[in-house]
Specification:
The structure is a homodimer. Helices cover about 45% and strands about 25% of the residues of chain A. The first copy, chain A, has 10 helices and 11 strands. In chain A, the strands form 3 sheets. Chain A has a 4-stranded antiparallel β-sheet with strand order 1-2-8-4. Chain A has a 4-stranded antiparallel β-sheet with strand order 3-7-5-6.
DNA sequence: AGGCGTCTGTGCGCTAGACCACATATATGA
DNA sequence: TCATATATGTGGTCTAGCGCACAGACGCCT
């Protein structure tokens, strides 16, 4: 992670952008722009957090790694959210890991500043709690989807959720990493991705995935994607 | 649901019990004791909530039902929690259903009272948010467990979580209902439960499950149970 | 140009669990 | 005591996805 400067351009995180003028002005001096690289660990299982992060064009995955090394994603955060909810929810640490899934920028804020502002009970608190509820929906739907749907459907869901949170049509992501996120084997992803490629929905070469036909993905995906998207729009739109 | 009276005995919900004297005194007049029957729906998908519920000796499951009727549980709430977090998180409605999984009592509180007290920012807010974080852990672990573990392990996890939240060693619950909770087929539960019965861990007849040897269940269960339990103890203990 | 490391493709056997079709057992109420 | 609905047991077939073992294929570095 590299610290860049104080942000001066228009804010690209939806939570911050939704703040009223005065609250944003109060927080602005406490925001620093940082840059995440692919695969960087934002926090570890049980680790202590000094900052919260508001991604702008980066994506951060929340995942859990079992004792035997197997892992699975429970949710992901982009420019519509915040990484480090334990800091305002009161737990201090979270029982999961946060890993950068798509390189890019974020704004960070010191824990103390966040907590003080949260305690004021204004719009900031309101937005953070609504985001947390949307995140709960996402995690819930991941639980259901893991139980009931095929790898191909889950891959579509994952691609669409990522695509929604990043500007470009190209995702930098190997099948190996996707397999870790979805909690399946790499070969399973190869087969599912192969089918999507054959249908013309996506194209990929060595870690570069292109969304060619978003509609095709939406036709294949299970209802879980829509549920999550609708809830995010309802709560944060 | 039947409304009984105003509670006068010692409070049996851990969240309420953790309140300081003055806050509890302020809330007491707004609490009504109610009785839930097995299978009762506390709230529906997208439904509006007039009350939150603090279970005393009942257990309420949060589950999601797909368009095709298949369902899966994302978490469960007993005397250590509250049903209806959307009311203080700000969403108003939740994209899931809440169903009584074990008949028993709860204390209910009008939404308006809850929200006013929450806005004061005292210990009540603190407790509700910490509980919500513990719930997030539970849902997350359900997601991971659904992906990576066997039906038998998940059944153990479910039995242990339920056993922790109810006084008795006997659970009133058919295999059919457990199958809906776990998002698996009824026959799958029959087989898994049969193995646990053979090993002497449990005994059951027509909807009455007895925990005979808790240790055996803990030996069989996956790590997911421990993670959830530890996090509840840490955050609410 | 060559070599090595990292991705991706494929095939094969195996297993858990789904789906289907009944058989049996227990409770409840007429 | 009998009828009926509900709960549980079991067996057979089918499939998705795992584990394993390689075989290309592409990218980067020297």
């Amino acid at each position: 992670m590299t610290v860049i400067a104080r942000p001066n351009e228009p804010v690209e995180n939806r939570l911050l952008a939704a703040l009223p003028e005065d609250e944003y002005a109060r927080l602005l001096p406490s925001l620093q722009q940082v840059s995440f690289s692919l695969g960087e660990v934002v926090y570890e299982f049980g680790g202590h957090l000094d900052y919260v992060f508001f991604p702008t064009n980066s994506i951060v995955s929340l995942l859990y790694t079992m004792e035997n090394g197997a892992s699975a994603e429970m949710g992901l955060t982009g420019n519509d959210g915040v990484v480090g909810i334990a800091l305002f929810m009161g737990g201090g640490t979270m029982p999961n890991r946060a890993v950068v899934q798509s390189a890019g920028g974020a704004l960070r804020m010191k824990a103390k500043v966040l907590q003080d502002e949260f305690a004021r009970g204004g719009k900031f608190q309101y937005l953070l709690l609504r985001y947390t509820q949307a995140l709960i929906t996402q995690i819930s739907q991941t639980a259901v989807c893991n139980r009931l749907h095929s790898v191909e459907q889950q891959l579509c869901r994952w691609l669409l959720l990522s695509h929604d949170r990043v500007k470009a049509d190209e995702l930098i992501m190997t099948q190996e990493l996707i397999a870790d996120m979805l909690g399946v084997r790499r070969e399973g992803v190869t087969v599912a991705a192969g089918r999507l490629q054959d249908s013309g929905a996506i194209g990929y070469v060595r870690g570069h995935i292109k969304i060619l036909d978003r509609q095709k993905l939406e036709d294949t995906v299970c209802e879980c994607y829509r549920v999550v998207k609708d809830e995010f729009d309802r709560l944060l739109g």
